[in-house]
Every structure is written in C-alpha cells, then in structure tokens.
Amino acid sequence: MKIKFINFFLITLLGSLQLARANDQNFVISQVDGMVQVRTDMTRELVFFSEDASEAIQWALDHVISQGDEIPAGEVLIGSGDYFLSKGLRIGSNIWLRGKGSTTRLIANAFFRIAINVQDASFTVISDMTLIDKSNVHVGIELERSVNCQVLNTYISGFTDGIRNSGQSALTLINNNVLSDNTTSVMVRNGGGVIGRWIPLFISENTILGGTTGINCNAMVVNILNNTIHKTKGRGIHAGTNSIVVHGNSLTRIGGDYAIFGTGAEFNCSGNTLSGLKGNGIRTRTRWGNITGNLISNLGQDNEEKIGIHIVNDKFHEGPAESKTITGNVIQNDAGFPKFNYGIKEDGGFTNVITGNIISGFAKGAVASTGEGTIVTNNQELKATTGLERKWPEWSAEEKSESNDDH
After folding, report:
1. 275 lies in a domain?
2. CATH number, domain at 380?
3. If you compute the radius of gyration of the chain from its CA atoms, what whole number of angstroms results?
4. Kindly report the CA angle at 8 between 7 and 13, in degrees rounded to 5?
5. Predicted confidence (pLDDT) at residue 301 exceeds the cutoff of 90
6. Inside any domain, residue 5
7. Which of 130, 261, 278, 400 could form a disulfide with 155 if both were Cys (CB 3.0 to 4.6 A apart)?
8. Has residue 17 been placed in a domain?
9. Given this model, what pLDDT does residue 287 score?
10. Is 101:53 a contact under the CB 8 Å cutoff?
11. What residue numbers bound the domain in which 326 lies?
C-alpha cells in the first residue's frame, strides 16, 4: 500500500495577500513580448515587469504579504514558458510557488550556487514545474533550517544535488518528483541541533533516473518510501545514520557496490524490490533493525560473485552488528545470470536472527554466519530457476567503467 503524505490543510494557509495596490490576491507570472510580467490573479492588474525572469519572480515572492505587511502568505503561479534564471530565488514562509506542470520551465543559465532556496521558513511549497541546470549550478532546491516544507510534482535535472535538505530542516515532504541525471538526486544532510534530528522527514513516491547516487541520507529519522530508482552509477540509497526506514522502493540497474547501503543503528529495510544490480544487494551494520520481505534478484555482473544481504561487523568504529532480524527475503539469480557468493553473509556480531529466507542461485552458500549467538533457521535453499534463460542487461563499456569506483 502506498503512503500519501500531502497535507491538504496547508493549501488553506496560503490564500491571503495584502498589497498596497491589490489586496487579497495572489500573483500570476507570464511572458509577453520579451517581458516577464507579474499580475494579480483576480483583477489581472499589472504590478511589476522585467526582462529578467529572476527579478520578476523574486519581486512576486517578496511582495506576497498579509497581516499588516509583516507575514508572507500567498501563491505565486508561473505560467507556461521558459524562464531563464540569472540568479537564485529565495522563498520565505507560507508561500506556494507553483507552475503549470512540465510546460513551466525554470532554466538556470548563469553561475550561482542554489536555484531555489527555502531558508528559515515554514509551510512553504514548491510544485508543478521543471527546473533545469545549464550552468553548473550546485543545488536545484535547498530546504535549509526550515519546518514543514514540501517539494511536489517537480522535474529536476542536471544539478549536483537535485533537492537538498539541510540545517535541521524537519517535517520535510519530498513527494512525487522526477529527478533525472543529477549527481545526487536527493541529498539529506544532518542538522547541527537536537530537535531537527528527531523530527521525521519523508522522501516518497519519487522517480530517480540516472546520475551517481539516488538518495543520500545523513540525517536521523527519515522515511524513504515507495520511490523508483533506475540506472544510477553508484548506490541507489545510502542510509548513513540512525533510525532510517527504507520501504517499498524499486531499484533497477544500480551500478554501485551496494544497491541499498545502511550504516547506522535502527536501520529498517523492508518490502523493497532490487533487480539487475552490478554489485551487492543490501548492506547493514551496527545495532538493531530489521531486513524483511525484500526481493533481490539477478545481482552481480561479469561473473563477479556478490552477496544478497551483507551484515557487516565493525566493532572498532561503529559497534558490532547485533540484534538484527533478517527474515522473509527472497534472493535469487535466474539461470543465465552469474551466481552470487552468498545469499546472506554475516561477518561477526552477535544475537542476530536469520530465518525464513528463500535463496537460490548461490555459488558458495545460501547463508554464511559467524556471529556469536546468532540464530540461523528455516531458510530455504533452492536451485536457480530453470527453463527460462535470460541475458544480462547490456551495459555499455562507458557505464561499466564509470560505475567501478562510484559508491
């Protein structure tokens, strides 16, 4: 079951403006005869225009105000067309910046660091537009030190970080976006304080295509749910700290050392589908967490033998792998694919439980366990699928070389 997180009540908070010339109206931005015009949405009064799209959009964002000209609140709608950004945009609280879907294209064509920056804000929404980098801009959309902000239904391409959540930003929702050919599509940085670390973030139902890393998460209490990640050169999902849930995601043609890389405590990884991987499947280490109900198929490339689920014990740096439950997973390589070394491999640790998994297509063993007090029981070892010969997905020589060192 897919999980929806869009807070519909938020829209009701974004309705009131009070301008000197146009009270209680939002803004609509359009292009006419080379000019970018800002008009009120009801009376269609022209209130600002400029040849510079960044200047016109920023003016609209700065003048959406209410409650005695003190609190921003309102909607800025950007119409269809290509809007070339000469500088980054800054968005405050209680503002909904939206376009008309794929026909609204914001194109960064000058050198600056962040295309759209939400900073020290709350209840801000960005949605329904295309954002493209043409000038080596580092970040598409950054949410910094902000609370309960959302990025929805956007297409973002060509940035170093497509969407970046940083500086203690909490209750962020990144939902139903398409991120294509960004170095890292979604980057979640850890905050500097305590409160932001313990309030959840949601990254859900996005489609990630290409680039190096799909989702790189280095903050606590993050839910990565029902995303589709295809053909990254490096890892599909990197979960770099504690209390991260990875559930219901589909990862295909992943080129990194692991499709899903978990390195913190309380790492829960369930119901994911991983297929056609160059490297290993799922990696987990340190204390606690469950790896349950995942389907991992056709991993390993060029007869390089791999591991479906790898439990890593690092007692010197991050603590031993302990008290983990690995159950209900299916790990298989079909006939015609190279065999992997082990379905599940445990490198030390203690008191883990490995039970009820189904494993086929292995070369050395279904389960290899060296943990102290680990329970290994009721796992099924099956022969590789017969009667259906499949060819390994064809990877170009360039793809192979690019992914060798990309994690």
Report:
1. yes
2. 2.160.20.10
3. 24
4. 100
5. no
6. no
7. 130
8. no
9. 81
10. no
11. 79-402
- What's the total number of domains in the chain? 1
Give the contacts of 405 (CB within 8 A, at least 6 positions apart).
Answer: none
Query: pTM for this structure?
Result: 0.87
Give me the percent of the chain exceeding a pLDDT of 70. 82
Average model confidence (pLDDT) across the chain:
85
Q: How confident is the model at residue 304 (pLDDT cuts 50, 70, 90)?
A: low
Q: Is residue 47 part of a domain?
A: no
pLDDT in tens, 203-248: 999 999 999 999 999 888 899 999 999 999 999 999 988 889 999 9
Distance between CA atoms of 237 and 251, rounded to whole angstroms?
9
